[in-house]
Request: fold
Amino acid sequence: MTPLPPKGIRILVIDDEQGMREFLSFALESRGYKAASAENGAEALEKVKGEKFHLILSDVKMPQMNGLTFLEHVKKVDPAIEVIITTGYGTVENAVSAMKKGAYDFVLKPFNIDELYMLIEKALEKREMRALIALYESSRVIYSAVRVDSLLEAVVSLIHKVLEVDQSAVLLFGENGKTVFNSCNGSESDLSGGFHAAAADWIKHLPVESVRPIFLRDDLRKYPCFQEIEKWKVQDAVICPLIYKNQLLGILSLTRLLEKSDFAAADIHSATVFATQLTLAVQNARLYESLEKKFKELEEAYRVLNDTKDQLIQSEKLASLGRLIAGIAHEINNPLTAIIGYTQLVLEEMPQGEAQRQLAVAYEQSQRCKQIVQGLLRFSRRQELQKTKVDPAALIEEILRGLSLEIQARNVQVKREFLPEALFIEADPDQLKTVFSNILVNALHALDASSGDRRLSIRMTVEPGHLNVIFSDSGPGILPENLNKIFDPFFTTKELGQGNGLGLSISYGIIREHGGNIAVQSEPGNGATFIVQLPVPSEAVPREDETFITPAGLEKEGVQNILLIEDEASIRDFISTLLKKKNYQIEIAEDGETGLSKLQGKDYDLILCDYRIPKLNGIELFEKTKQIKPPLARRFLFITGSGELILGTDYVKENNIRFLFKPFTGRDLIEAIQERFQLQK
Reply:
């Protein structure tokens, strides 16, 4: 046998003498091997645990761990590694001990380097031989790891040839005892096939612990199941049960016809050996098919997991960015509230003229800033869904009516393929309109770049458990590098000033909040398709009647006592000025502890409280008020730019908490106050 070529062979040299380590390493590398070294057994053992070596040259006497102790340990780590022991103090006892511990050979120093080379080659040759044997054994396992149907054909053909039988058949049983696989080889199978079926039916009704290989000769008709023996022309038969762990898998059935010779003892022995091998082969093949099925299931699970992972990554990106935006928006809201409020107050009293016009422009721009901030907050805040029965088709029609002028101006052909009958789902209609509007408006903008026919298709399909709303346009499509970023916040392909890149991010969050999914498909030049998937309830849920409270007398001046708790001076002054003009009696607290002190000493008709205030935040103050004066807790109205921390929770519902979000106008504030008074009645 040709030994392993030196290239790629790694040898570890262990010796406490540096000169010997360097000499052997140099000699081995000059021979083409790769050499590493260690000065004692302990160091070498760590190297073997972390690296792969084909052979080890080890001295016997070394500090910390001698060669024989190392040999014992290394064989536990890698039994296949060959070790040659080298020593200048050789004894018969050491040599015997080394061989018992698994050493390949024992060499005395000084040694001839050429002799060492030959010894190394022989040790590597032995290793290669062992590897080939292992490969051969593995090939037998691989042979059995095939599909059951092809395995049976190969095995039956082999048995038929080796044992020189007229008929060889394998029949396998399913869980219910019925024959699920069978393979038959030989002459006149149309006549003798009935014999194998009868044999299988007979064997499977016997107690499995009593089933043994059966040699049928003489008068087969004495067995009730073989009454048609003359029809089958069977003279001799061997039936070997295939039993694995006390479970009858099937039978191997061999027959010789009337004019043929009987089975000899050697034939029967060979048949039982084949049956044993066949049993393992069948079991392994079944395991293989089971693993293959599991693998396909795992592949599907992996695909679903990948989809879920992508959705989770998207949700995490939105959540982390949402927290950042919420903080920024909160800081903007306070000064913006004061700007809007004071501008409105001044406009109400300023005479008409150029100064009023200019201030009105400033007020309009501050309102625009308000809308931008509110959009940011909608993006960052998981708002509580106000679900009701919704017909998505009706919502889309409503949006299309609002976009009719833009559709006509762009000469866009809109094709609808809605369901024959209205399908109601549970959803928040306002938020769903936001999603559909974002997709439709984006489609119209995309069609501006289309030189051909401008087509927009909206269709609906129903699958088990969900409704698909599919929007397709004939625009230029989306570049492949942008597909994975299309739902990222602030990502936009529009020109500066034409979009902020939040529409699809907000839409993604809304649909996920509804328990659905949103996806995009596109190829450059072939338009884009957005698929909105929404869950369909298994049972129709009745529409809940909503009670709307219309604030009465918004301009009615009141005399109610209001406690304002606000730490931002500009907002505090604006609210105080506005409420005094409306004839409300107002007291002020700049932090939670001051507010609590005032509540302990006096009752108020309304507590207007910022959510984020020092010393005691709004909720902490609310909880303490519930303890000392429960009726006053029902008179809280929170003003906040960051109430998303508890919005949508059961706590809000249970305590009937109301929020007014910054930035707000004077009218917004008065309406909120009047609505709160209405709820208290």
